[in-house]
Design brief:
Largest sheet: 2 strands, antiparallel
Helix content: 55-70%
Order of helices and strands: EEHHHH
Structural class: mainly alpha
Number of helices: 4
Strand content: 5-15%
Radius of gyration: 15 Å
Length: 99
């Protein structure tokens, strides 16, 4: 299976799109729940890098899938905090001054 799913000429992460589709398909109220958001988050962080494709994919999922308010807020906060921590770690590794 290909890594990407192309939608309207844009490459997205197939695994993330599939997870979002499964999350809303035929169960609950058709929204991405807190549990679903945590699954998506784990899939994003599995490689210890937030790639441009993953960022674009999550933007697509946030715009095109319904989320519970709590799940959307949790995901945005979690990804922001995780991404910020990655940035700090990268700077430490590269020997940059953090303050």
């Amino acid at each position: 299976m290909a890594y990407y799913k192309v939608i309207d000429g844009v490459k997205y992460d197939r695994e993330l799109i599939t997870a979002a589709e499964e999350a809303v398909k035929g169960k609950g109220d058709g929204r991405i729940s807190m549990e679903d958001a945590k699954i998506l988050f784990q899939k994003v962080i599995d490689g210890d890098i937030y790639t441009d494709v993953e960022k674009d994919t999550m933007e697509y999922i946030r715009k095109n899938f319904k989320w519970t308010e709590a799940a959307d807020e949790w995901f945005r906060t979690a990804i922001s905090q995780w991404s910020a921590n990655l940035s700090v770690e990268k700077k430490k590794i590269e020997g940059e001054t953090l303050y």
